[in-house]
# Entry
Amino acid sequence: MSFRGTRNLYNLLTIMRIAISTQNPVHPVMVSVKMSIQLTSLETEAQQALNEQQYQAAISLYHQCLETESDRLNDYWYLGLAYFLNQQEEEAQEAWMMPLLSGQLDDHPNWEQALISILDNAIERTCSQDNLLMGKRLQKVIQEIDPDYHNHKLTTAIETKTKVLLEEGIIAAFEKRFRDANVRFLAILQLDDTLSDVWKNLAMIYCKTEDYPQAHRAIQRAIALKSDESSYHHWQGLILEKLGYVDLGITSFKQAIKLNPKNLDAYASLGLILTKQGKIAEAEATYLQAIANFPEHYGCYLNLANLLLDQAKDENHCPPRRFEDIIRFYQKVLEFYENHSFALLGLAEVYQLAQNEEEALWYFASSAYYSAEYESAVEYYTKYIDKNPNNVTAYSNLLTTYEKLRDYDQAIEIGEKSLQQFPTNRGLYKLLIYLYHTLGDIESASAIVARAEKAIPNDAFIQRLKQWLLPITYNTTEEIELYRQRFTDYLHQLIDNSGIDQPETLTQDKIAQLTNSLAEQTNFYLQYQGKNDKPLQQKYGEYAHKVLSLKFPHFVQPRSLEPGLPDRKIRVGYVSACMYHHTVGTLFLGWLKQANRDKFSIHSYAINGKTDAKTQKYSLYSDTFDHIPTNNDLTKIAETILNDKLDILVFPDVGMVPMMTLLAGLRLAPIQCVAWGHPITTGSPTMDYFLTSDWMEAENGEDHYTEKLIRLPNISIPYEMPRLPKVSDPRSKFNLSNSAVVYLSCQSIYKYLPQYDYIFARIASEVPNAQFAFLESNNSPKITEQFSNRLKRAFAEVGLNSEDYCVILPRLSHDEYLSVNLVSDVFLDTLSWSGGNTTLEALACNLPVVTCPGEFMRGRHAYAILKTLGVEETITHSEEDYIAMAVKLGHDPQWRQELKAKIRANHHRLYEDQIAVDALERFYEQAVKDFQALQA
# Structure
C-alpha cells in the first residue's frame, strides 16, 4: 500500500492511533530473534550517521537493519526520522506506517511513548544544531500523537533566535543593507508567522526596495493579525499611494488617525496626499488638527506653512492675514527647531512674495548657510550686508562661510571689517581667534585676544579664550613647555579674577558670564602635550564645579538611591555627544549591546544633532533613549536625566565637548563614572569612578586620576568586529607604490609630537623602499602643512627628502580608510598618544601593529589591545626598539605574513569580549552596595 498520494503526515499519524484501537489482530510473520553482532554494529553505525547529519547514509543503514530483522520497531521510527530530517516526508510517512500495516504495533502498546521519545531527542538536537525550523516540524509531528506536548527548550531557542534575527534585521535596515534585513525578517516569520510587527518591518523593507506589491501583501498580513494597530494602517496608506490607489490610501490614513489620534506621521501623510489631490481646505484642516494634538512639534507647523505658501505662490498673491499666518507658522518651526533650513527658505520665499527684498535676502542667506550651500550663502550675505550693514550676525555667518570654503584670506578680511564696525562684540573676536587657531597662527590669535581684552576689559569669556589658546600642533619641544607654562599661568589668573572664592560678591550676571565662558571650550589640546595633566585638570574641574554650583544649585545636590533595590533592576544611564559614527560611539556601544537586561535597565541620552545607524543602535540597545538635538541647553539635559532617577550615570567621554564638561561638574546620579573615550581625568569633584582597562594602565595609574580607578579586564570593552569592504581599493588610488613597504600611521596630526619625527626618517634610512601614509588634518590645510614641514626637517637631517617617502592622504570615507589598512604592510602606532579605535580597525584588517607603551593610559591603548589579542611580538619598550621593530618588519615579508595569520586566528580573543562586560556589571553591583552601605 502506498501513501504517496497524500502529503498530510500528521493525519496519517492520527489514523495510526485510530487503526490500532479498532483493527483486527494481525499475526506478523515470525522471524528469528537471534541478535547478531552484525545487526548491533549496523544500528550503531546508523545512529552515528544520524547524529552526524549524514541522513542518506543513515537511511541506507536502517534499511539494512530492517532487512536483517524486520520487527525491530525503533528502527522503523529512526528510519522515518532520517527520511524526515532529509526533507523526504513521503518516505517518512511510509516508514512510520509500516509497523501498522504489518500488525507489529499489537505487541508494542507503548509505541507512542517510544516514538515521542525518539522525536523529542531529535528536537533537542535540532536546537543544538540551530535547525529550529526542523525542530518546529518535529514538534508538530509529536503534537499529532500527544496534543499536550510542548518542548520548552525549542520554545526558548526560537525566542532567542527571533530576538537575535530581529536585532540583526533592524540594524541591517538602519545601515541600508535591505537585502540582509529582508532575509532576517523572513527567517523570523518562518519560525513564527504570527508576529505582526515583523510583517510590518518586512513591508517597510519592501518599500525601501520599491517592491510595493510585496510590501502590500506583508502589511495586509500585519493588519490581519492586529487590525487595531494605527501604524499598520498608516503604512498601508503609504503603500497604496505608491501603487496608485490614492483614495484607498486616504482611507487608510484616516483609519490610522481614528485608531490613534496621536499618530503624527499619519496626519503628515494625510495632509500631503490631500494637497497632491488639490484638496487644500481638507489638508489645512488636517494640519490644524495635528497642531491641536501636537502643539510643540515643529513638523506640524512646517507642513501647514508650506501648504499656505504654495497656495499663495500659485495665486501669485498673499493677503495680509495669510502672510501673517505663514510667517507665524514658520517662526514656530524655528522656535522648536533652531535654524531649520526649510523653514528659513520658506520665510525667504514669503518675504520675496511680499516684495520685502531685505528680509528675503536675509532668509535666503541663512537657509543656504544652514544647508551648507556656502557659495550661495556668500552671494546672499554679501547682498544683504550692502543693504543692512548693521546686522552683526550677517558678518559672523559670512566669516564662517568663507572659512568653510577654505577662503581664509576673505574670512580674515570680513572679520577685521566687522570688528571696525562692532569693536566690542565678543562673538566676532571669538570667531577670529578660532580662525587663526585653526590656521595654526597662534601669534595672530593671541594678538586678537589682546585687542579683545582692551575693547572688553575684565570679560570672563575673553579670559577663558586667552587661557584656552594652545597650538594644535607644535614645531619644537620648547614650544610645548612654553605654551604649557602659559596655560598654567592663565588658568591661575582666570580663577583669581573670577571672584569665585568670594561668591557673595558675584552678581547673577557675573555668574551667568562665568558659566557661559565654561560652555565655550574644553582643555582638549592640553592633553596632547604628553604630560601629567592631573593637577591642571583638577584645578579647572574644581573651578568649573564652583561656578556651576552658583548657577545651578539644584543640580549639584547629593543624590540618594531610589528604594526597591535589590528587588528591582539597577538603573544605568549613558550620556554622550558621540552616539553616532564617532570613535567614542563605536568604542562603547558594546556596553549597552551586551548588557544583562535581567539585572540592569539602560537609559541613554544623545546630546548631539547628528544621527545615523550607530545612533539607532544606541536606541535599540536602550530601555529609554532621549535624543536632545541641541547640546547647549544644560537645564533640559540635566532635568531629563534627573527625571529617570538613575542609580549610576556613565559618561563615556568627558573633555571633547564643552557640554559634557559642564554635565560632569553636576551631580545627576548618586554614582557617577567616566570612561576612557577621552582618556584623561576630569578633575571634577562630582565624578566618582574612572572606568579603564587594566592593560592600559601603568602600575602607578591611580596617581593620574582624581576619580577612583576601576581596572576592567582586557581592553574593558566588547568591541564589534568591523565590517570590512568586500573589495578593497588598490594602492594606486591612494598614491601608494606597489613595490613599497607601506607603513600606515593614520592618527590626527595633533597626536604627533615633534620629538618623535626622527623615527620615521630613521626607518626610511634603513628601509629604502619604505612609504609612510598619513592623513591630512581635519582642522585646516595649514596644520597639515606645518606637520609636512616638520617631516621635511627630520628627513633632511639624515640626508633624505621626505617627499620621496611620505604620502599625506586626503580625508577618506570609512570604506576607503579600511581599504588603506588592507593594502598596507605595517601599522605604526603614535608614541605618547596611542591609537585605540584605529588599532582595533587595523587588526581587523590583520595589519601588524608596532607600538611602544607610554607613561599614561592614553599612550597605552595599542599595547593593551595587542596583549588582549595575544600577539605581543611587536610591542616595544623604547624608541630604539620601536625603530628596530619597524625595520625588521620592513625587511621580512614572510614574518609579516606569519603575524597576519596569527592576528586573524586570534580575532576571537579581542572582538565582542563578554568578559569585560561581566566585570563592568559586577562593578556596577558592587558600587551600588558600597553606596547603600554609606547611606545606611
Summary: The two ends are 81 Å apart (CA to CA). The domain at 731-911 is CATH 3.40.50.2000 (Rossmann fold). The longest strand covers residues 570-576. The chain has 41 helices and twelve strands.
